[in-house]
Amino acid sequence: MVMARRGVKMKRIVVFVIALLMSVSAAYAGQFELSGYLKNETSWGISTDKLSKFKDIIQLSGQYTVNDNWAMFVSGRYWYDNAYGWYHQYDQAQRYMKHIQSEEVLRDCYLDYTSDQFDARLGKQQVVWGTADGIAILDRVNPFDLTEYWLPDAADIRIPLWMANFKYSPKLNSTLQLLVIPDFQQSTAAPPGSPFAFRSYRLFDDFKTYWEGPPITGVKAYGKLNTNIYYPETTPKIGVQWQDTIHDWEYTLNYLWGYDYLARTYLDSTQVIPPAGFPPIPTVVLNYARRFKIDQMVGGSINHTFTNEGPLQGVTLRSDAAVYINEPTYYGDPTTGSSAGVNRWDNKFWLIGLDKAIFTKWLVSFQFAQYIMEHKSSGVLNPATGTYYQTLNSYTNGAQDHVDNIFSLKIGSHFMHDRLLPEVLWSFTDDNQGKVSPKVTYEIRDNLWLTMGLHLFYGSDWDSNGQFSQEKQIYTSLKYTF
């Protein structure tokens, strides 16, 4: 396993060096542009009274333009979080997942071909679908890195994939896009022992510790728990989008088919090993499997800015909607936070957003979304209660509502010739749980930016945001671009 990790790391370094050399060699042709940034991100836990992040980041990007039709773009990033070396309470997280502390990765590496009617982008890239801000409804082409929940910028959360991205414009203001994605990477989340580990992960880790602990007379025998992950076959993911404009109303129709990037956990079998030694206590082995399932997404978006005089003048309307066909959905006991199995349901997610500039300098953005579970009876009775199991929240294994009403309000402005940018984002649900994130960004000079802010979570431990109510933090970011 160690050799395999080293092999992957060395492969990443080799690929990044080769890409960088290609970029440098292109520079001598006089058609090369190099850019990048150095950045430090620091977070201090208000409740824990400890440094929760001290991350140093470097990113380099290079673009080589061959001619009007052909161009190549490469970017690589390395980061290291010093907090994991300073605090022993993060040792558990390091043991589970090395990339929680550092990573070097080739972010983008693609070849662009552009023409009047046909464009192609071949290589490692991100594809953004939809108009939703901070909520992934249509934006599901790429997997996500949620090791810091949904706090970083969306461009940093998405995990780029190798793919072929074709666009054809049969008429003015219309585009047909085809995505063929042979690459597969799972979405990642923070492991137990790190600040933003999901409650569902922590509960499973606690159960493993309990099960493999000493036997308890009349309760449990010697135990062992195995977890195997089964990655999907080579079936590529396919995406199609039609984009068009009718009377200044821009709309898209979207379709995505392939393996979901999030694995679900199943109990495959239970083994009982006959007792040995004295006293004679058997060993019970639980064999769990994490599998990825094929699902589909069908949806669309609408975007329009009202320009005619009236109460709506200057308002931008945005809307996304999607149906997730055969989406794997856990059911179980929310009281104990334990999953009993997985349903395959057709769940729905839609959003409407309104943006408007008021008093010239203030931009107000409001969003309302609903996540609607199919919520059929699972058909599986809980033998302990004699009632049907409930649907579980995938983040927390708490009770999942049939309909989740989700709101967000963002207010931002600009002062000092756009050098001072205050902003506050409040996202919440009708379950009295949410997150408030005020921040201020200041341009010290043309290429040096300082950001200071807060992330304040509230709600129940069963809720998506409430589970991090003890992870309130103050943060700063200093970014130098070149």
Account of the protein in words:
- This protein has 482 residues and is mainly beta.
- The chain is 11% helix and 53% strand.
- It contains 5 helices and 24 strands.
- It has helices at residues 2-27, 83-86, 91-96, 154-157, 199-211, and strands at residues 32-45, 50-65, 70-81, 102-114, 118-125, 145-150, 161-168, 175-181, 188-189, 222-230, 237-246, 249-259, 264-276, 281-291, 294-305, 316-333, 338-358, 362-372, 390-391, 403-412, 420-429, 434-445, 448-458, 473-481.
- The strands form 3 sheets. The protein has an 18-stranded antiparallel beta barrel.
- A hairpin with a 4-residue loop joins strand 13 (264-276) and strand 14 (281-291).
- The radius of gyration is 25 Å and the shape is globular.
- The two termini are 39 Å apart.
- The model is unreliable at 1-11 (pLDDT under 50).
Question: What is the percentage of strand-forming residues?
Answer: over 45%
The total beta strand count reads: 24
Could you state the order of secondary-structure elements as H and E?
Answer: HEEEHHEEEHEEEHEEEEEEEEEEEEEEE
Rg measurement, Å: 25 Å
State mean pLDDT (0 to 100 scale).
89
